[in-house]
Amino acid sequence: MKLIRSWVRTARHAAELLQKAAPSPLIQQATLLEKRPVRIDHFGPDPGRLNMFVYPPSSRQQKKPCPLLILLHGCGQNAEAFAAASGWITLAERLNAPLILPVQSRTNHTAGCFHWFRPEDIGSHGREAISILSMIRYACTTYPVDPDRIHIAGLSAGAAMAAAMLATYPDIFASGMLFAGLPINVVKTPAGALSLMKKGLPVYSDEYLEACARVLAPSNVARWPRISIWHGLVDGVVSPLNAGLLARQFLSLHRLPHHMQTEMLPEQAARLEGINWQRDGETLVSLHLVPGLGHAIPTNQPWQAASDPYVQPVAGVDAADHAAGLWKA
Fold first, then answer.
1. Is 275 exposed, middle or buried (0-12, 13-18, 19+ CB in 10 A)?
2. Does the keyword Membrane apply (predicted)?
């Protein structure tokens, strides 16, 4: 958090100087493109060779601190179509917040998947993790980002990478939303990743799950981010059992007691409103197992889902609306 605050202070000082100068042609041009993502070619260290796109805030002259949203796509997805179909662009406009879209290069992975399981790509020395952190730093020094309101979300491989980022930089993120995700750092090979996706097994102990996440984390974590975990009960790509593993992993990190058995999760999923674990009245971990939902993000706007097969209409369930409540939109 100290690192983020130093980025923000530097950016605010630069903004004060820029106010005395004429408007930048680059800023004027970006204003014209605010409804489409802007590609940022030079955002800082990029050892993961990722691409950065950003939806700038609608109000370019705003001074009030705003949230920062990061959305990680899944395998085979078009990041722009995913952001639109999932409701995240509308959510960012509602919050007047910049929305970062890290995009995997097809030269890195032919299906466009983030390498969420490879030791060389996650953790504080991980290539893709460093690239995503550079994008966050760029946003914090470009927009009036509130360092206490940085939120990350993702689907499938994007959710697994988002979870790894939350474990690696817990002091940076306020919260995360993970859709069809997987537990952090329990497998390290493509074969192991595929097995975990399909089976959600073995049923790791809470101690092991916590240890796997803490390997990536700094030694003195002051607080862990709030987590909202979502999974469709008819997901045929990533077993819903992974939602239980992921929930137990963050429950252990938060030191929250539970009586959940991963293999019993489908029987525990009768309520769409989810299962919440709280401390002092604040929900720190929530689990939403959605009947009828496949490998997708749920929306109650059918017209949105038409542009992305990984966004699915579900009556009465809208992930973006839930995010708005979680992030106090």
1. middle
2. no
* For residue 73, pLDDT beyond 80: yes
| 148 SS3 class | strand
DSSP label of 174: S
DSSP readout, 239-259?
Answer: -THHHHHHHHHHHHHTT----
Q: How far is CA 52 from CA 38, 97, 131, 175, 247, in A?
A: 8, 16, 9, 21, 29
Instruction: Please tell me the distance from the alpha carbon of residue 144 to that of residue 60, in angstroms, as a whole number.
Output: 10
pLDDT for residue 4: 64
Token pair of 158 as six digits: 């994007």
Q: Per-residue pLDDT tens for 74-117? A: 999 999 999 999 999 999 999 999 999 999 999 999 999 999 99
Widest distance between CA atoms in the chain = 62
Report if pTM > 0.70.
yes
Q: Helix %, strand %, coil % for the chain, to 5?
A: 35, 20, 45
Q: How far apart are CA 172 and CA 152, in angstroms?
A: 10
